[in-house]
Design brief:
The chain has twelve helices and 16 strands. By secondary structure, the protein is α/β, with parallel strands linked by helices. The strands form four sheets. The chain has a six-stranded antiparallel β-sheet with strand order 3-2-5-6-7-8. It has a five-stranded parallel β-sheet with strand order 9-14-15-4-16, with helices on both faces. Strands 10-11-12 form a three-stranded antiparallel β-sheet. A hairpin with a 5-residue loop joins strand 6 and strand 7. The longest helix is centred in the middle third of the chain and has 44 residues. It is globular, with a radius of gyration of 23 Å.
């Protein structure tokens, strides 16, 4: 069974009321105010005018990182040594949040909520977002690391316990890999390894604890996706396709969570010699993957580009529902030039599906969204020239 809201949990629509930028990308200073009575904000105009920069700023304010493959220093305006993003959000009450980063005199990132400094793990989940971006298609057919990153971002936002477990796991993984390398070098030098192996068993207990927590929550996400995705996919495609998702792991998925630590421990034991030889941990959530099957065929080898786009759209809509069920809050939706990638039918289905959430949409398609904005009191159109 997947996570569900508590019976007494009231649903709230999260709203971004104001965004202030300082030395972020091309903006030395800027303030954007969002009309809470018009949940859809459309930013329209040609490419190259900074529309995506605004979405990126909102995303960084949410997660402390960009959705682009960039260094933190690349987010700072030319010639400056810091950026600052301040947002005013509203759920149960109004809250001011801030993310800033400086690279002089030392690299430092700061998270604040109502003026109080927080750790990254304490801040994540304060401001919930779901990003629709054309490059998200990469998660469906490129490196497994992208699919792991997808799971990690979604689960970290919705469940702070997952983020804590993931942080601990990554720290222990580095320690275990360093110890594996030390054991390998000791063996090459014909030095004693009994003490080092005792240390390895101690680290294994730690990595099993946090790795099991990660896998268990990922399997609950998988259960949610398998319940929601088929219906969402068919609603978008208009067809009768079957859709399933599998979790791929060197650790055999248990039939009950209580069995997972034992299976995990046995897997590490079975792979110990291989791990020492390679000086790296070859099994665990850092190596796991997702596989998508459309009509019982793996999507990587059988799907058309249109089917890929439909699946991605269904995944993102499921992501909204997952966050809503876990947190009781609707996330802010960020749609970066997605409409130009969809036909008219899918555009209309997307707008219908996101109704009720606040959304910030960038587009070069002034004709379609301009017409929609003129017909609706719920859409605020801002044209960039």
């Amino acid at each position: 069974a997947y996570y569900g809201m508590k019976s007494d949990q009231k649903e709230y629509i999260m709203k971004l009321l104001k965004l202030q930028l300082e030395n972020f990308r091309s903006a030395s200073r800027g303030t954007f105010e969002f009309d809470p009575t018009r949940p859809l904000t459309v930013i329209a105009g040609p490419n190259g005018l900074g529309k995506t920069n605004l979405l990126e700023a909102v995303y960084v304010l949410s997660l402390g990182r960009s959705f682009r493959a960039v260094l933190q220093d690349d987010l700072i305006s030319w010639g400056m040594d810091y950026f600052r993003l301040i947002g005013e959000i509203e759920t149960k009450e109004k809250t001011e949040i801030e993310v800033s980063y400086s690279n002089y005199p030392s690299r430092k990132k700061i998270f604040k909520k109502n003026g109080a400094a927080l750790k990254n793990s304490e801040y994540i989940g304060t401001f919930l977002t779901v990003l629709f971006h054309p490059e998200d298609l990469n998660i469906l057919y490129l490196s497994p690391s992208l699919r792991r990153r997808y799971m990690d971002i979604l689960l970290s936002q919705a469940d702070r316990r997952y983020l804590v477990a993931l942080t601990k796991y990554n720290q222990i993984l580095k320690q275990r890999n360093a110890l594996l390398d030390e054991i390998r070098r000791a063996r090459f030098a014909r030095a004693p390894t009994s003490t080092l192996l005792d240390d390895l068993f101690a680290w294994d207990k730690e990595i099993v604890e946090f790795g099991s927590a990660i896998i268990e929550k990922r399997l609950q996400l998988l259960s949610f996706l398998n319940q929601k995705l088929p219906k969402l996919y068919r609603a978008i495609s208009g067809g009768k396709e079957t859709l399933t998702v599998s979790y791929l792991s060197k650790i055999e998925p248990p039939d009950s969570p209580a069995k997972l630590p034992g299976l995990y421990t046995q897997t590490l034991s079975n792979r110990m010699e291989k791990d020492i030889l390679q000086a790296k941990t070859t099994a665990g959530p850092h190596r796991d993957d997702l596989a998508f099957y459309l009509n019982e065929k793996e999507i990587n080898v059988s799907a058309s580009r249109g089917e890929f786009r439909t699946l991605l759209l269904a995944i993102k809509l499921a992501e909204i529902e997952f966050i809503r069920e876990l947190t009781g809050e609707d996330p802010i939706l960020l749609l970066d030039d997605v409409f130009s990638e969809l036909d008219r039918s899918r555009q209309n289905r997307l707008l219908k599906a996101i109704k009720g959430c606040q959304a910030i949409i960038t587009t070069t398609d002034m004709e379609t969204l301009g017409k929609l904005a003129s017909e609706s009191q719920h859409i605020n159109l801002a044209e960039v020239k």
